[in-house]
Amino acid sequence: MIIDCHGHYTTGPRQLDQYRERQLAALKDPSHVFTKGSLGISDDELRASLENAQLKMQRERGTDLTIFSPRASTMAHHLGNAITSQHWAELCNELIHRICTLYPDNFVGVCMLPQSPGVDPRNCLGELERCVKEFGFVGCNLNPDPSGGMWTGPPLTDRWWYPVYEKMVELDVPAMVHVSSSCNPNFHATGAHYMNADTTAFMQFLLSDLFKDFPTLKFIIPHGGGAVPYHWGRYRGIAQDQKRPPLDELLLNNVFFDTCVYHLPGIELLTRVIPIDNILFASEMVGAVRGIDPETGHYYDDTKRYIDQVSWLTPQERAKIFEGNARRVFPRLDAHLSRRAKA
Amino acid sequence: MIIDCHGHYTTGPRQLDQYRERQLAALKDPSHVFTKGSLGISDDELRASLENAQLKMQRERGTDLTIFSPRASTMAHHLGNAITSQHWAELCNELIHRICTLYPDNFVGVCMLPQSPGVDPRNCLGELERCVKEFGFVGCNLNPDPSGGMWTGPPLTDRWWYPVYEKMVELDVPAMVHVSSSCNPNFHATGAHYMNADTTAFMQFLLSDLFKDFPTLKFIIPHGGGAVPYHWGRYRGIAQDQKRPPLDELLLNNVFFDTCVYHLPGIELLTRVIPIDNILFASEMVGAVRGIDPETGHYYDDTKRYIDQVSWLTPQERAKIFEGNARRVFPRLDAHLSRRAKA
Description:
The structure is a homodimer.
Chain A: E1 3-9, H1 14-26, H2 43-51, H3 54-61, E2 65-70, H4 82-102, E3 107-109, H5 125-134, E4 140-142, H6 162-171, E5 175-177, H7 189-207, H8 210-213, E6 219-221, H9 232-241, H10 247-251, E7 255-258, H11 264-273, E8 279-280, E9 292-293, E10 298-299, H12 303-309, H13 315-329, H14 331-342
Parallel strand pairs in A: 1-2, 2-3, 4-5, 5-6, 6-7, 7-8
Antiparallel strand pairs in A: 9-10
Helix pairs in contact in A: 5-6, 13-14
């Protein structure tokens, strides 16, 4: 079985953007009373938005199941306030739940959280619990910078975030560390902000004792870990200089990398320097890069092809990357698949 | 000849820090009138600070010449104001000049600039010109984020920076894009802020027509280009999606990467995906990582060893990385070395 641990609903019908535009426009009226409302998207529209996109690509590429979450770039926690974030997160998560219900063989849900800059992240606990307990979601996306590229909040290792971690541990769900769009003109979203956040989060973890406080807490750092595997020697060396434990002992029970690296040499480096147990297959399709690589004739984000080409992986290692590690990092996914297999 | 294009004076005598501390402490007194003053460092102290550090490592590692600039982390443009930055930059650059005069075979100078957040970078032109024309420096370090991790200024591709680029083109000197320390608690300096700035600058270049406006402008992106080579497929794909020209045509006449990547797999990736003509040897010693890698028994930052081990490099390619590319990217270095060879 091939599990893609990183897919966003990037192909939603226009009602989704229209809702968000109306919601944000209403912020201009200080007397506006926000109500959640609804998106008015039919099941047929959901199906149509997926059939020629994620589902088609799953079939073509031979992947089975995508761990699916709301579009990352439009989480945009920096826009609006805690109430608009709450309504927007709920509606987006409900769409994911409907998709997972329509296509139970193809998608399992991960939620976005109603984060808002400067707002105590305890406001996220209810939605996380609802998505896990009521919808059967298996994880969440946690935005390390709800300010959208201004980085005004505390690091992920600050106690500010601990209520979220307590709930994650209680529910036994991991978080993917995933920023959203950037309102800082220095940072292109998918070309800079995403990579930077991945690198930044890893370095925060390296310097802290977070995983002493939460030994079972788990994070996936997406986009191949940003700059980290390419600079693995640097990180080993910095940890050593700082008298930190070796990286495997310090954080590799808790931190995992996905395979959203869009060329073979990058995937080869990832699988060479990072322990196989810490690598989860992912493509992020349909996502940041949508074209076909003229050098290969295949989609840049068809990352399964790269992994298939890494000559030194054993069948056991490949099975871990494609399935086993995801089932270990997402225990609720494993339970779900075990139940399904017995049914 | 082996040219290390990226070395900072990280081992200065204590007077250097003491000057800076006094200068910054004086900011608390609004009536204080700043004068440049002097550092009170003797030639013997300069020699002592280098003999058992950079010079010893050059000898031990078999490198010849280091392109040497003031310590990056203590540029700290976010502290103080334009006047303190001016005095601090001048004094630091003068030290580099004295070092290059004491050890003309071992060091060639690159200057820091008196940047200050929100201050028109025209204030840097005089110091740049002084360092190049009076001291014989061959380049400069340009901080893309003088706010020190707050990223409050415009991107490097904004016309805000054009006066600096005009002067660089006029003087025929490149800039290394190099941030300083971070006052943002999210960003560890050498583990996150440096990498992020490298990645960010590349993405800014990718989206702009800067090199149409300045066809001969040249930048070195340090630390192996941040996340860029590891994600080269992503960047090729984003450029393609955005209808930009291919990367080689778009920016590889103007953008170069150094080899400050502290393990063999990273250096192998760099030399596999980036054209050899765009790679300049560098180690950044004595710098971000100072220990010995227990996996190899050698210093993490002894990057020459990694390049020596890349099996597929031809002698011609190695010569480009070690010498030829630096002489091409730093035309004033080439002229200097040619003069020296004739003398």
